[in-house]
Amino acid sequence: MFGRLELKRPLAVFDIESTGVNPSRDRIVEISVIKLFPDGTQQSTTRRLNPGIPIPPAVTAIHGISDADVANEPFFAEIAQKLYNYLDDCDLAGYNITTFDVPLLECEFKRAGYEFDLSGRKIVDAYNIFCKLYPRTLTAAYKFFCGKDLVNAHGAAADTSATLEVLLGQLDRHSELEGTVEGLAQASDIAGPDAVDRTRRFKWSGNEVVVNFGKNSGRTLRDLAENDPGFLRWIIKNDFPDDVKSIASDALCGKFPSRQAGDN
Q1: What secondary structure does DSSP assign to 211-256, as a single string?
Q2: Collapsed DSSP state (helix, strand, coil) of residue 184
Q3: 201 and 240 in contact (C-beta within 8 Å)?
Q4: Burial of 139 per CB tally in 10 Å (0-12, 13-18, 19+)
Q5: How many C-beta atoms lie closer than 10 Å to residue 223's C-beta?
Q6: Three-state SS string across 89-101, please?
Q7: pLDDT surpasses 80 at 55
Q8: CA 82, CA 49: separation in Å to the nearest integer?
Q9: Three-state DSSP class for 183?
Q10: Predicted confidence band at 18 (pLDDT cuts at 50, 70, 90)?
Q11: Torsions phi, psi of 169, nearest 5?
Q12: For 57-74, what is each residue's pLDDT tens digit?
């Protein structure tokens, strides 16, 4: 059985690896499903797929799947009916699937001619549960790492003192953290090696810079400069960091970031 987990219908726990992070543009390269049944049994399956578009090297560096690995695998459309039937009676579960995996799966089914209806399904997202159980506020972190209630929260002095205690508490609790400023700065960096700017508004996709937010997510900076310069002008006029505005401004002048040899 599955501990305290109670099932009234099958639950499909799944994860997707893809060509990128834009559900409308990117494609699945691997999907794995563990199907749990109310009687306590389970089935598992993993299937690699040919996305029909190149897998950017920066993405391959993350999940390890290259174009050559999937060159002889079926396209999603070829397995769509079987997968659709397999998931037809299931609720869905996964980690951070609400914002990515489920929308991408919907798009893939739609491209294959299937309407993947979510209206009758329950969606269990372990990431969302994690965020609710362990809120990311300073008050919650102070309680978790220091075992204390934060008095006078949002006062600068109290918050500064609590932050220092939390940082020291993190070092005490997690031996994998390096106790140097350089090591802690690296652990603090969530932008990743493919980030072009520090807020990750632009990122590398191979040797091209692409937008990483909003309706134009996935489009190359070069394409926007040539075909949709209004979007870049909008960035320049609005509340974005200076480095983001500089990238947009340079692109309008025909100057684009150059990726150095050896960069990931």
Answers
A1: E-SSTTTT-BHHHHHHH-HHHHHHHHHSS--HHHHHHHHHHHTT--
A2: helix
A3: yes
A4: middle
A5: 14
A6: CCEEEECCHHHHH
A7: yes
A8: 14
A9: helix
A10: very high
A11: -65, -35
A12: 888 988 999 999 999 999
Per-residue pLDDT, 190: 63
The owner of tokens 């893809």 is: 18
> What count of Cα atoms within 13 Å lies in the side-chain half-sphere of residue 228?
11
pTM: 0.66
Give the separation between CA 35 and CA 185, rounded to whole angstroms.
40
The angle at the Cα of 200, spanning 173 to 219, to the nearest 5 degrees, equals 145
CA 18, CA 189: separation in Å to the nearest integer?
23
Contacts of 136 (CB under 8 A, 6+ apart): none
Half-sphere exposure of 92 (CA within 13 A, CB side): 26
Which single residue is written with the structure tokens 């190149």? Answer: 54
Q: CA angle at residue 124 from 121 to 126, to 5 degrees?
A: 165
Looking at per-residue pLDDT, the higher value among 239 and 248 belongs to: 248
In contact, 30 and 47? CB cutoff 8 Å:
yes
Model pLDDT for residues 160-194, shown as the tens digit of each residue? 888 889 989 989 999 998 888 878 877 777 667 78
Helix extents (H) in 53-180: 57-63, 67-70, 76-87, 102-111, 126-133, 138-146, 156-173
Two structure tokens written together for 120: 């009758």
Checking if the pLDDT of 158 tops 80, the result is yes
Helices vs. strands in the chain: H and E counts, helices first: 11, 7
Place of tokens 């397995």: 79
Tokens of 63: 């999940």
Residue with the two structure tokens 């960069």? 263
